[in-house]
Amino acid sequence: MELGQDTSMIDQDVNDIYEFEKNIAKYHWTNDEQRARHNETVRTTLGKLSSTFNATFDFTDYLRRCYLFGNVVLQDTDIVVVGEIEYLNNVSLILKQASPRTIQNYILWRFMMGATSLMPQHIRMIRQRFDRIFRGTNAERPRKVVCGGLANAYMGFAVSKLYIKKYFDENALNESLEMINNIRNTFIEMLDESTWMDAESKVKAIEKAKSMDPHIGYPEYLGSDNNTKLEEDYAEVSNAISVDVYMR
Q1: Is the pTM of this model over 0.90?
Q2: 173 domain residue, yes or no
Q3: Could you tell me if residue 132 is inside a domain?
């Protein structure tokens, strides 16, 4: 109702979506059923995919279109691993029997359920009411918590650099590195002076001790003022979300 003006068929559309998803759910297996089943995994090529299993849905065209979003053109010789042939056959039959309107509404429904956290408040409030009934949750997480979590999830190294610059003591890092080197040198001296190891074993053990690379707290480049490595890490990141909309 929030996305369109025509509400005359809303009840029928919701019922159709429910029945559609219920039919798909019939072909999901429980954990026990999944463990008891024979392995159906099939390895084939994209060119032979359509003949590998009897599905009415054109999975070959679907895969080609999906990869085109990443500017990747699939070839007929590309390897495809099909994990659940029976399930895909059943779902393709359901897709064939369902009306285009139901499939469209279902896709929109699943998209909206996954993207509500990125949308304005009046949309999120609808999701909150749904979750209150369906899951028993009473409140939406504070927006600053959601935004902070997403920023850390998608740009963790950039966030870490800001945190390190503000809170970490470089002297403490240097002291830790010195302590590790002292421990390693002492360990090497103990190996060298040991009487229970043969000469060849001592050499190998000392080589291994010297080859150990200490990692403390964070990568070295995050603690420096040089942003080149960080800029390379995020060179292909683009802003896909309107900050103004998201923060409301």
Answers
A1: no
A2: yes
A3: no
Amino acid 173: pLDDT: 81
Q: Domain residues for 36? A: 10-117
Alpha helices in 121-242 (DSSP H): 121-134, 143-154, 156-167, 170-193, 199-211, 228-233
Question: Is 31's pLDDT higher than 90?
Answer: no
Residue 245 has a pLDDT of 46
Do 81 and 163 share a domain, yes or no? no
Within-domain flag for 59: yes
Contact 43, 74 (CB under 8 A): no
Nearest by Cα to 241 from 152, 148, 114, 115: 115
Per the domain annotation, does 3 fall within a domain? no
Q: How many domains does the chain have?
A: 2
Q: Give kind and range of the element (H or E) at residue 80.
A: strand 79-82
Give burial (CB, 10 Å; 0-12/13-18/19+) of 152: middle
* Half-sphere exposure in the Cβ direction for 155 (13 Å, CA): 17
pLDDT digits (tens, 9 = 90+) for 146-200: 888 888 888 889 999 998 888 888 788 888 889 999 999 999 999 989 889 898 9
Is residue 31 domain-shared with residue 113, that is, in the same domain? yes
- In DSSP terms, 29 is beta-bridged to none
3-state secondary structure of 43: strand
